[in-house]
Every structure is written in structure tokens, then in C-alpha cells.
Amino acid sequence: MACVGVTPAAAQDFQKDVVPFLDKYCYECHDAELEKGHLNLEAFKDDARFFRDQRIWREVVNQVTSGEMPPAKKKTRPSPAEVERLQTAVHQLLAAAIAKAKPDPGDVTIRRLNRAEFNHTIRDLCFLDENFSADFPADDTGYGFDNIGDVLTFSPVHLERFLSVGEAIAAKAMPTKPSELEGTGLAMIEMLPRGKRDSQQRYFDPAPTLTGPMTASRDGDYVISVALRSTGSPGDPPPKVAFLVDGREVGIYQFKQVKKTEVAEAKVRLTAGPHEFTLKWLNPPAKITGSNRTLSGLRLRLLGPTDTRTELQRRLAVVIGNATGEARARLVANSFVSRAFRRPATPAELTRYVRVFLDGEKSGGSWEAGAQAMIAVVLASPKFIFRAEQDEAPTAKDAHPISEFALASRLSYFLWGSMPDDELFQLAYAKKLSANLEAQTRRLLKDPRSRYLTEGFGLQWLQLRQLSTVSPDPTMFPAFNDAVRTSMIKETELFFAEIVREDRSVLDLIDADFTYLDRNLSQFYGIPADLPRTRGPSPFVRVTLPKGERGGILTHASILTATSNPTRTSPVKRGKWIMEQILGSPPPPAPPSVPTLEGQPLKGNLRQRMEQHRADPACASCHTRMDAIGFAFEKFDAVGQLRQSDEGQPIDPSGKLPDGRAFAGAGELKKLLLADREKVVRNLASKLLTFGLGRGLDYYDGPAVDKITEAALKADGRFSALVLGVVQSDPFRLRRGTSQVESGSEALKK
């Protein structure tokens, strides 16, 4: 339940509007004596603690409106009018409590960069895109994510790894000796049009042109090089060839004589990315085929860029200009340290790192050696490894804005999993980021680096990392293999990425008429897809789904497989997953005394055995809703393939929710979930806020989640509305004042 769209009104009389309902329907189980579910509702005498206890009251109303409480076995159940009166009373009491409360952004926990954030930060700081954290200890998770400050521990092994990898990164980013010219090659037998070949030698035959693709690693000057062999008679003219890039002539090479192998070269400036390269024989014989004049070669090579300095070397060279000595060291230190620490370097820090630079320069004999020594030390600093936010108003009594640089880091690590870029830094220096927060958020979402929201947030929220540990029985499910497993994950990743990239409604996650398939999944699902013929793994294509129950992530094979047992489906796991990850209403843990399904002498098919299991009152309270949801997907087996029967009997995917709403299968259940759109959007808002803050949510975060949910619902659930709601929320933009820190500490002691 949320107080979305509720105008704060005069507080209702708690004793008059809430207590009678509790007395009639709740105290029997939730009183001081029984305290079922560890909840004693008799302890609440008025609305004095309504803000602090809002989680309890939200859940009370949620349980009542969903029909889960009072339990179905109770003969006396509240009427719709009674439920509505309770909901209205609690809504207004909660709205009034929120209106009176001061904004509380919660605690700021210093956070270590996790493994993904470390790699992304090195990519944007040192311009090296590699998995440098491969040997780091695994990151612990909390609240479903691996970027939670309270669980990101720092061990002696971490220290050892950070020190060693820092030195390796510094050596790669700032080499002290010129690097050799690198190159990429294209076998000429692969060039078009297809024609005469002799072993690996490709002839200009039947056409005088050969064309093929190569990719430039970055902007810069390159050399196109090819060793060509010519044949002919002494009186024939020496061959003459032209080099073309993307249809534009960039150079001509004239052979010195006939019957010789010569290296032809041309220099060209290229932008990063793929290009089309063409070799053209300018003076071929009138008829190439059958002539004694031939021209052939093995491999076309692209060498470069000819400037072999690393990207960091080139950028720091621009910063240095003509400076030398200590002035040069200070320029390098100020530039690199400020970016590494994600805020302006202090005078004391600059003095320290200038000294390291000069010592390294003296012992290594070059400014590159000095920079390398300084970089290695900076990358081992806690100020780089940890995200610590400096408070510009440490004596402020109440909640106040975080610094512009802290805001830049919160934004970039939320959406990119990496440090701020130059534009964010410039706005932070000018103290204009807060005023341009929405525009910058939209810019970051459009940047390719926002794929981190899919890899870092989406796949963790959906718990797809569990799929790597699932081992379906190969004799029962022979169609499943590691290649299919990989394709399953990729399907869900691409589907979620489209929601982010195209700014679609997050409700499309529940049901949609499209997905992404490659050859593996096309065959696995039995859904035809227009796939191009390629060697090796086939690409994924966007496919419009035929009418049926498959659509949205709930029927992705990745989710269905991750929530199954090795030998059979698990309605319990599937129902629990939807309640937790989609609706944000996790069932309580099972009592320790309750036996498992396999540990009981039950008879019949799976559905019948589950019904016998639920006959135990201790099981029924949780399983009634959870099992109904899970059985809706029984037509999908343990690896997500459609089926019509199980254990020799037709499958019954129908069910009924505790509030009386019935459904005939997965398709109708998805419609019911979409009818609960507020719950779906609110849950995703809570997950995104948790991910963005790097901490679990508490009662004081309830108003922020309300506002994010309300804004997203008004925007038809668009993903950008959720993200904007998070970055514009009080917990994201503010930090606690001294009075709140002190009161929080006192509460903790009590």
C-alpha cells in the first residue's frame, strides 16, 4: 500500500477508525499473548509513532486488501466497505504523519568499489578496458545487490590485490618505453568478390578489385600494408594499385618491376570503428582470366595508430603542454588525482603525489616513469578504492544537499557503474549540476555506458546469476545445454536493455509481444525467427511472439529454469520469486518444523501433493497465494519449454488469489498482475532506490518511494520516470544533519 495521490488531511481518530477493525479481525492472532508473525497490534494505542511504524501499517493494509488477512479459514471476514474504511483511515493517518516529518535521507555508508565498478572506473580513468578485478575476492551481496556499502568488506586479500593490480594498470596506462606498432589483418581469400586462389594466395581474378572489412581501434593515423606478388613478361608494365577506404582513394603504389614481390603501403587517417578497405589494380590486362600477367597477395594489414602512446599518455601530454620539472609534476598530479578521487585534490594531497612523481621521474629517467609511479600509488589509495563523500556543511542541523561532486559520483555510479565524465565534472566545478540534474540524467541514460543498468541492476534484480548454478537433469531435459543456458540469459538481458534504451513502460516486463531469439532459443522454444546465415554462434534478432502465454520476463526460459528443481518444476519457487521480485511482498520464512514436499507421504500428481501439503495450517498461510501463482506457469517445464501434461495427466494451470480473483493460466495471471500495476511499479522503485543508494531502505524512505511511484505511474510506467524519481529523491540528493545523526545513534543504542 502506498499513500500515492493522498492529500494530507487532519489525522483520523486512531481509536475510532482503526482499532475497531483490529479488534474485530486482527487481535485474535496478533495480540500481546500470541503475536503471530511477531506482530502485536495491541501495542499500538494511537498514531504517535505512525511515521516510524509506517512499514507495519502499509503491510497491514496490503494483507487486508489482498484478502490474505484475515485467513480464509476465518468465518467472519471484513466486508468491502470495512476494508475501504480501514484503507482510507490508514492512508490519511500516514499522509498526515509524512507531512509533519522532516526529510530524513538516511545514513551515508562509505563504499568500496565492487569488482564491476572498479573495472569500469579504470576504463574511464586510465582508458584500459580489461577485467582487472578477475582475481579479487567475490563481492558479498545485500538486499539483492553487490553494491551495498554495509556488506562490501575489505580484507587483507583485497589490499594485496589492489596493490598488485594498481602497479599493473599503471605500467599499461603509462609505459616508459615506446610501444611497437600494432596491427590487424584481413586474409585476402576472404575479400570480395570470390575468385581464383592458390593455397592461401588470392589473385585479382576475375575482377581487378578486392574489398573487405577491418576495424580501427581508435581515431588516428594508420598504415595500410600488403605484400603483393606479380607475374608477367619482361615487356609488361609494372603493376599499379590503389588503396580505397570507404570508397575514397587514399594512396597509390607503383611496382618497380614485373615478376617480384613488393610491399605496397598507404597512410590514412581513420576514425574508430569498422571501415571498408579496397585494393584496386589500376593497370590490369584487358582480360584478367587466363593472362600471364597476375597479381596476388596473402593478407591486407592495418597498422596503427602510428602514435603508439596510450590514451592516458596523450591526454596528460596535452595537460602538460611545455611545462617541465615540478610544474609538470603538479599539472599531472592535479589532473589525475582529482579525477581518481572524483573531487578536486587538496593542496596536501597534491604535495604528496608531486613528491612521488618527482622521485619516480628521477629514478626512471622520464616524466612517464614519474607518472607511472604516481598512478600506482593513487590507485592503491583508500580515497580511490572507497567512495567517501565529503560533507560541505558538517555542522548543519537538518538534512542538506550533498556536494556537487558527491552528486556527480552518485549519478554516474548509479547509471554507469563508473566515475563521472568530463561534463559532470565541469558542472560540479561550476556548482550547476543540481540545477541540471534532469538533463544530465537523461544524457547518461542515452550513453552506451548505461548498459550497466541492465548488467548491474537488471540481472541482479531478476536473480539471473542463479542460472549459472542450476543443473537440470540431462536425461529428462536433453534440449538443455550450456549453449542454451547462455542464450537464455542473453534473451532476458536484451529484453531488459530495450526497456531501458527505448524508455518503454516497465509494465512491459510483465507481458509483451516481443522477445529476442538466436538459433538456440528459436529451436528450443519452437518459435521461428528470421535469422541470418552465419558461421559460428548466430546473432540475436527481435521477434514478434505468436499469440499465446509466452511474453514478458515471467515466461522467459531463464526465469523459469532458475526457479525450478533439477528434475521438476517448483510452483513454490516460481510463486515466491514473483511475490518477492515483482510484487515486493515476500512470504515469511517457512517454520523450521515444517517438512519438505519430498519428506512427506503424499500421493497423486504434483498439484495434488501440494494441496495435501497445504492442509497443514502452518503451511497454508504462506502457500495459498504462492502456490496459486506458481501453478499458473505449470505448462512450462523445468527448463521453460511448453508442455500439456505432467506425470501422465493434463496440466491444470488455473488458480485463485486470496482476494477471490481467479485465472485460467499464465496469460490471465499476467493480466491480474498488470491490474496491480501500483505494486509492480512501487516494488521496482524500491529496488532501484536501493541500488542507487547502495543501502537497504528504512521506514524514513517510505515517502521517497511514494513520490517515485506516483511520478512513474503518471508517466505510464516509463523507465526514465523511475530513474528520474530516484535521482531527484531526498535520499539521493541529501544527507543527514547533526541532529538526525545524533538521534539515529541514540535510537541504535536503545
Topology:
Blueprint: H1 14-17, H2 19-25, H3 54-65, H4 80-100, E1 111-112, H5 115-126, H6 156-173, E2 183-187, E3 197-198, E4 201-203, E5 209-216, E6 220-231, E7 240-245, E8 248-254, E9 261-270, E10 273-281, E11 294-303, H7 311-320, H8 325-341, H9 347-364, H10 367-379, H11 382-385, E12 386-387, E13 400-401, H12 404-415, H13 422-429, H14 437-446, H15 452-461, H16 482-501, E14 514-517, H17 519-525, E15 541-544, H18 557-562, H19 571-582, H20 606-614, H21 617-631, E16 645-646, E17 649-650, E18 655-656, E19 662-663, H22 666-675, H23 677-693, H24 702-714, H25 719-727, H26 730-733, E20 734-735, H27 738-749
Antiparallel strand pairs: 1-12, 2-11, 3-4, 4-11, 5-10, 6-9, 6-11, 7-8, 7-10, 13-20, 14-15, 16-17, 18-19
Helix pairs in contact: 3-4, 6-10, 8-9, 8-10, 9-10, 12-13, 14-25, 15-16, 19-21, 20-21, 23-24, 23-25, 24-25
Identify the notable features of this structure and list them briefly.
single chain, 750 residues, alpha+beta, Jelly Rolls, six-stranded antiparallel beta sheet, 27 helices, 13% strand, disordered C terminus
